[in-house]
UniProtKB/TrEMBL annotation:
Lineage: Bacteria, Pseudomonadati, Acidobacteriota, Terriglobia, Terriglobales
Superkingdom of source: Bacteria
One term of GO molecular function: glutaminyl-peptide cyclotransferase activity
Keyword Signal among UniProt keywords: no
Peptidase M28 domain sequence ranges: 110-318
UniProt source species: Edaphobacter paludis
Statement: the UniProt record of this protein carries the keyword Metal-binding: no
Name of the featured protein: M28 family peptidase
Keywords: Acyltransferase, Transferase
Gene3D superfamilies with a match to the protein in the record: Zn peptidases
Length: 326
């Protein structure tokens, strides 16, 4: 609304009643319009502060969550406790499997939460929830690497519970065993998503997936989401558009990278994938060549509600754009 274009007469300068009325009309329109705007509800948004608070709660409940540990079991209990309404509706699935690892067979579990949409097809939002197994003997809690994205998906579930998908169904995947058990390799990593991609390939689910969107390390206070060359080009283009649409262009694509991450098992089976990740985490020094990544310094004070808000806005806009694309 441009106030400069609105000419309002002063009634005391007019001698005729009709002129008085004409002078009051623009003011009346202005007042009614303002009242109408105040009465309108703002579009619902993802709650970045709530996601941050959930991150703190998750870290308190299960700071060390490496596979096979009591903390891992507490992490699983925390996740399940957030989705009681979906469990009651039969929209929550526990996907249990045994993984062959350098440490022997290990029991792992993925969790899938479904929010039915109005048209055929699925958009998957995913994150791993465990911590790095080789780092189990240091004070590694993975606030940015696993905790904040787990909380992010939980808060996304809170949003979708009250704002059901109007297009494709949206499924949340909390995947296990992303981290290596001994040393990263094709066979010692991505256990949960390798298992799930194979399972969904066999039962036909894979063909229904329109996009697999991975959230990883998105809580960094100094957020800048990388352009991941292992992601599907049209989804990278859509992320750039989503950033523009939400006013977040300055937070994306400063750096290019090619990340080996949980999206790869799905990419290898032909699913369009996007890794939304900020791998450049913290200052790179002689003692911290990779910044805070995979160190005891990956703690809650290094992440922010603001970054999680940006990520939430981007993910919701991505869902809208994928729905629109058809």
């Amino acid at each position: 609304m441009t106030f400069a274009a609105l000419k309002i007469c002063h009634p005391k300068r007019s001698t005729a009643k009709s002129k008085d009325l004409r002078c009051f009309l623009p003011l009346l329109v202005l007042l009614l319009t303002a009242a109408s705007v105040r009465g309108q509800k703002a579009p619902a948004r993802f709650n970045g502060q709530a996601a941050y608070n959930l991150t703190q709660q998750y870290l308190n409940a299960a700071p060390k969550r490496f596979v096979g540990s009591p903390g891992h079991a507490r992490a699983e209990a925390f996740i399940k406790d957030q989705f009681k309404p979906e469990i009651a509706k039969g929209h929550f699935e526990t996907d249990s499997f045994s993984a062959s690892t350098p440490a022997g067979l290990m029991d792992m579990r993925n969790y899938i939460v479904r929010y039915p949409g109005k048209k055929d097809g699925i958009i998957v939002l995913a994150s791993h929830y465990e911590t790095n197994y080789p780092l189990r003997d240091i004070n590694f809690v993975g606030a940015n690497d696993g905790a904040c994205t787990t909380a992010f998906l939980i808060e996304m579930g809170n949003y979708l519970r009250t704002h059901p998908p109007q297009g494709y169904s949206v499924w949340l995947v909390f995947d296990d065993g992303e981290e290596a058990i001994q040393s990263w390799s094709d066979s010692d990593s991505l256990y949960g998503t390798r298992h799930l991609a194979a399972k969904w390939s066999q039962d036909g689910t894979l063909k229904k997936i329109k996009a697999f969107l991975l959230a990883d390390m998105i809580g960094d206070k100094d957020l800048n989401i990388d352009r991941d060359e292992n992601s599907t080009p049209w989804l990278l283009d859509l992320l750039k558009q989503a950033a523009k649409n939400t006013g977040n262009s300055s937070y994306v694509f400063k750096n290019e990278t090619a990340v080996q991450d949980d999206h790869l098992p799905f990419k290898q089976r032909g699913v369009p994938v996007l890794d939304i990740i900020d791998i450049d985490y913290g200052p790179h020094t002689f003692s911290l060549p990779d910044g805070y990544h995979h160190t005891a310094f990956d703690t809650i004070d290094k992440i922010s509600a603001h970054s999680l808000q940006i990520a939430g806005d981007l993910f919701l806009e991505m869902i809208r754009l994928i729905d629109q694309r058809g």
